[in-house]
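Supplementary notes (optional reading)

For those who missed the lab, this is the record we used. Protein: 3-oxoacyl-[acyl-carrier-protein] synthase 2. Length: 413 residues.
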Amino acid sequence: MKRVVVTGLGIVCPIGNNLEECWENVIAGKSGIGKLTMFEPPENCVTIAGEVKNFDPTKYMNEKEAKRNQRFVQLAVAASKMALANANLEINATNHHQIGVSIGVGIGALGYLEDQSFIARTKGIKRVSPFTIPGFIGNMAAGVVSSETGAKGPNICAATACSSGAHSIGDAMMYIQSGRAKAMICGGAESALSLIAYAGFGQMKALCSNRSDEPEKASRPFDRDRSGFIMGEGSGILILEDYEYAKARGANIICEIAGFGASGDAYHFTSPAPEGEGGARAMQQALDTSGLKPEDIDYINAHGTSTELNDLCESQAIKTVFREQAYKLNVSSTKSMTGHLLGAAGGIEAVFSVMAIKTGIIPPTINLENPGEHCDLNYTPLKAVKKEVNAVLSNSFGFGGTNVSLAFKKFKN
C-alpha cells in the first residue's frame, strides 16, 4: 500500500475562523457555544448553538459566487483554501487531474430547502429559486471546492450522517493508496442550524434544552449531568498526499494517516449497538489497517456527543478494544467546546487529532465535573495536557449505525 501523509490543515468552526485561532482556543478550553442567532427560535425550541462568528465568505470566493452558494459550501471553500495554503500545494495544469476532492456533508442546506418549500406552498412554485436543488444538495461542497481550486481528480461526497467527514477522509486515503489520485482535499462541512433541524432533533430529545442561561456549559460529554448535544456548524479539511508525491515536491509533512476503520451496527436507526459493538469494530479495524497496537495509541478524540447512550457506548467500546490500556491513554471530546458539527464533525476532529500529534498537546473535555455512570476513563477533564503524542484515533459515529475510526501517527522516514 502507498503511504499517505497529511500536509495541510484548514478549519472554520465555532471557536475560530482559522487554524491558529481554533487550536489556541481548543487547548485553552474555550467554548464556542452561545445564543442561537440564525433564526428566531419559537416557543419550546432550544435557543443555543455553536455558530461560526464573523465569517466573511468573500475572503475566499468572489461576491457573486458567495451569494449563489449556501453557507455550508462557503465554509467548505474557506477551509479548503486555507488547507491548500497550509500545505503550500498549488493546483495547476500540470497536476490538476491528480488532485481530488472528498468532502462529506450530513444534511446540506436544510434551512434553504425549508425556505423554498415555504415559498412554494405560500406563493406558488413559480416563485421558487432555480438554484433550489443545486443549492441544498450535499455534494455541492465538493463540487464548488473543485471549481474554486481547479482540482479535477475524483470528486465525491460521503453522506453518512455524523460520520460523513470521517468517511470522506478515509475514502480519500484509499483513493491515494490505490493510485487514483496523488493528493486529496478532504474532510467535512455542515451548516444546518435551521428551524426544522432544531424541531426534529428536539422532538427526539437529542438536544440539550436546560442550560439556555449558561450556553458555554451546555455541552458536557461524559458528565453525569449531560442532557443532549448542541448543534454546531463549520468545516474541517485535510490535505492528504501520496508520500512519494509529497516528498518529491518538498512538502512539509505534518503526520501520516495510517489506518481507516468502518463498520455498521445493523441494530437501530438512531441508537448505537449495545456496548458500542460497532464502534469497537471500527477502532479495531483502524488499528489493524495501520499496523498499530493498542499500546501505541496515546490519545483518542472521541465522538463524545454529550448524549447518554453515545458516551456510555463509546466508553464501553474503547474498553473492549484497549482493555487495561483504555485507562492509560487520554480521551477527550472537543465537542464540549464546538458543539456537534454533524457531517463536519469528523473533519474538524481530525484536524484537532493531527494538531495533537504536531504540538504534543491533548485538548480537554470541558464541563466534565462529575463523570457519568460507567464513564470512568481518562477524558482529559477541564484542562489540556502536554504529552508526547505518537498516535491518535479519531472516532465518528452516526445515525443509521455507521461508525468510522481514523488512525494518525507521527511521520517517520
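If you only remember one thing from this example: The radius of gyration is 20 Å.
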